[in-house]
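W.,

You were right to be curious about this one. When I first looked at the sequence I had no strong expectations either way, so I just let the prediction run and decided to look at it fresh. Below is the sequence, 420 residues in total, followed by the output.
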Amino acid sequence: MTQTANPEAAGAAGSPADRRTEMPAPRHRAGKLPGRQDWSTWPHYNAAKAGFRGYWYPVTYSSHVGDRPVRIKLLGEDIAIVRDKGTVYALANRCPHRGVPLTYGNKQFPGTLSCVYHGWTFDLKSGDLCAVITDGPESRLCGKVTQPTYDVEERLGMVWIYVGDGEEPHPIDDQLPEELVENPAVVGSRIQPREGNWRFACENGYDEGHAKFLHRTALWRLFKAMPVWNITRIEKRGRWIFRVQEEQHWEADFPGVGKWTSLAWYKQKPSGKVSNIGNVGSQREPNPVIAKQGFPGFVSVAMPGILRVVYPTFIHYEFYTPVDEDNHLYVGVMANFSKGIQTIPFYVKYLGAVRWLFHGQFSSQDKWMVEMTDAPPEKLYRPDASLLQWRKLAEDVTEERIERLAELGLAPADAQQEDS
């Protein structure tokens, strides 16, 4: 430490007035954040904290549902699911008597579920109260009480539940990706409870920029170069919107900062042609089923939050199931459209590596970011055009659904709550 030789002289030179004039300018600066930062442009999307009603959502593996009821939460609603004679049923998980969860009960009679507290017994298919064990065979409540029920389907080895507003559900196959419905496929999947709002998860999946930077450290990308930046347009086809890559830039010079490159001697060298099957510059011949689809872009999204990422030999899907405002289920599905003995390499590769590298370490980076995201407020940039189009899609489709409900004399649950 340097000391002053003459303290008195130092005191004279350092008077309060002098110190005020000689102090350096403050280092703190007010932020400059022009433009819209809230979600008021998309009121339906902004209100969908707990998810959009009127859709099928995957909630668990089919193998996890048996004779004992299982408790799940979907769009903020507490639900009991149980299997009877091979069929899965779903009821509201609150006994109307005293509010005890029905998942503590069991099946005392075929096709029914009885509350553990007093034996109120409900028909699994209709939800009707069909017996009250502790009130005797002539209970006057029977025929007067009906427990809310939910439509259930099973696809891709998973249980799917429909949460609506009184309308008949659309066929689940109308909501699943068309190529999965029309073609046989072998799949590997993962269902994981995660923190964070489902919208952050969906936006992360469809977001253009994050994969190029965040995932550069993922082992899945270790030997694969990814563009530093893209020129992209959004194309709508039916219920899907696609991110279409028009330019791919593998390195760039940033003025006043330096050069950034995604190329390295140990990484696969890009072909030099713009690819919309995958995002690593590979020009591998796509699987015939994938090629037949004619996808204009390698990433697409549809309501109520279905992400599709197309690679030459497989397609990766993500379904974001809203649990409540602060939690969701991440449902990752990887599908290969090979047949017969050709499916064996996919099983070996998925179970031996892909499940841990892609649905594990790679996806855990997304999990981390979704947990950390806190928006709005937000300041978007050029690559976020994909997010704007996704929000617009959600807004438009929701408006159409509200109109259909009105024609049926029905109203969305949030509107019903406002009226009451």
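Here's what jumped out at me. The chain has a mean pLDDT of 88. And, maybe more interesting for your project: DSSP finds ten helices and 18 strands in the chain.

Coffee later to discuss?

I.
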